[in-house]
Structures are given as C-alpha cells and as structure tokens.
Description:
This is Oxalurate catabolism protein HpxZ. The protein is an alpha+beta fold. The chain contains 4 helices and 6 strands; from the N terminus they run H-H-H-E-E-H-E-E-E-E.
Amino acid sequence: MSQEMANAERSDRAVNAGDVDLAQVAAEVRAVFDQYEAALVRHDNAVLSNFFWDSPHTIRYGIHEHSHGIGAIHAFRADTAPVHPQRSLRETVVVAFSADSASACTQFLAPDTTLIGRQSQMWIRFPEGWKIVSAHVSNVNPDKLTVY
C-alpha cells in the first residue's frame, strides 16, 4: 500500500472534532467510572479487577508498582491495602473521543496524607461493556506543584 493510500485510510478512520466529547458517551463512562470508584473505596477487589480489559496488553502504572497484563493487575489488587474510606475526588474530567473510547482523569485527596493523588484511565467499549485498557496513578506534593 502506498503511503498516500495509507494516509487516506487513516484519515477516514480519524476522530472527527464533532465526535469528541459526546455527552451521552461521556455520561456512560462517568457512570462506570463512579462504579469503579465505589468499588475502590469498598476495597472490592473482585469487582475492581472486572473493570479492566482481560488482556495481557492492559497496563496499570501505580504509585509504587507497574502492572503489565491483567494477571499482574489481579496480583496487585490481591496484595494492596485499601484506599482511605474518606477518599474524595475533585476536578474529574471525562472526555469521549468516539462512541467507543473515552478518558477519565481525576484528582483525589485523603485525610491521611497531604499529597494530591492523580488518576488517569483510558476506557474502551467492548462487546461485554466499558473496560479500562490503561491506567496511571501518581501523587504530588502540593507545595511543589505548579498549576498552569
């Protein structure tokens, strides 16, 4: 296939600006994201693991671990302590990039630390429902944070 044809084919599949931030899709993902958060606070590891794509390609980068593949994510969940039950979210943003893909980003706070947590997830709609295909969790000292 020529480069020109390949570029045209990619262009046909490209996300159109009108497809970004589809309200219904963003609302669906926000609802699933909220279910995930509730399971996280309950420390319901079986439910949490089911939110992730069952694939060796699924990635979760956490504050103290790298989990490559669903098996590693299951192992991490089995070995991790619960989050603080009074964990709270702020500045949660869900953006749909198509009818079948969205990102969810949030900050989280807990009364047992002064650090600001940050969480990003990429969600894809599969036949069995919305699944996280990649996630990243980090934290930052607010005294060293620059906000633009």
